[in-house]
Amino acid sequence: MLRLTTGxxxxxxxxxxxxxxxxxxTRMASKEVSESVDMSxxxxxxxxxxxLPDKPYKDVLTDADKSLKQKEKGxxxxxxxxxxxxxxxxxxxxxxxxxxxxxAEWKTVIGGIFFFLGFTGIVIWxxxxxxxxxxxxxxxxxxxxxxxxxxxxxxxxxxxxxSAKWDYEKxxxxxxxxxxxxxxxxxxxxxxxxxxxN
Amino acid sequence: xxxxxxMMRGLLAKRLRFHLxxxxxxxxxxxxxxKYTVTEPKKQAYADFYKQYDAVKEFNAMREAxxxxxxxxxxx
Lengths: 198, 76
Known about the structure:
The structure holds 2 protein chains of 2 kinds. By secondary structure, chain A is an all-alpha fold. Among the domains of chain A are: 41-101, Cytochrome C Oxidase, Chain D (Orthogonal Bundle), CATH 1.10.442; 103-132; 140-175, no CATH class. Helices cover 49% and strands 2% of the residues of chain A. In chain A, α1 (2-21) packs across α5. The longest helix of chain A is centred in the middle third of the chain and has 26 residues, at 105-130. The relative contact order of chain A is 0.07. By secondary structure, chain B is mainly α. Chain B has helices spanning 11-51, 55-65. Chain B is rod-shaped and about 105 Å long. The chains are: A mainly alpha, B mainly alpha. The interface between A and B is small, with 8 and 11 residues. Chain B: Pathway: Energy metabolism; oxidative phosphorylation. Chain B: This is Cytochrome c oxidase subunit 6C.
């Protein structure tokens, strides 16, 4: 499934590249698989927000089509249902319901998202192995607990902060009976973040 | 069919007449709420703390904990 997704993404990119490269009709010398479109002429589009494109779908009409077009110039009540549908199909390629049909494009999109997320994960893993410096010693548990002890000894933030929440008799964090208490965590890390912010 | 001519002028003024009092009221309410939920309790907490604060006792406690460089704990 992964290979199929990358193939689809690759083909989308290739098509966009080809469309960007092929320009006006003056370059007709190079015979490519898809003939270059003359973008200076009015073009036909199937778009939901452009109900009347710049030109009708079929330019070159067969004789049957031409006679039908002649008949269209008369009163329309005389046209049969099939003729009306044929006239519509001359002017338009797809009907609105056909245009609005759901495609399976979302699968490609989601697949592409996951693929690039995975690639990013590989890059990050490689960075953590080959790029990052050694972990600072200030992140060790022993260092952090000594740091907390020193903060409490110095009575950091004694009024509303960390030293106010600490129970000096029992040597542990106070039980939370104060509803206005903003510090929710009992861990060392939460105490640090809260103390620094207050 | 003749429709009545729509309002061409004074649209901003009309909007301001409606929204400006509301905006001012809400801003004032927010300020008053902040004052009485945050600043007053904080002032009270500080006042209560310093009512029972003995600086010398706190200093001695810190000295015993050994955080100072100018004075050593009384044991040494």
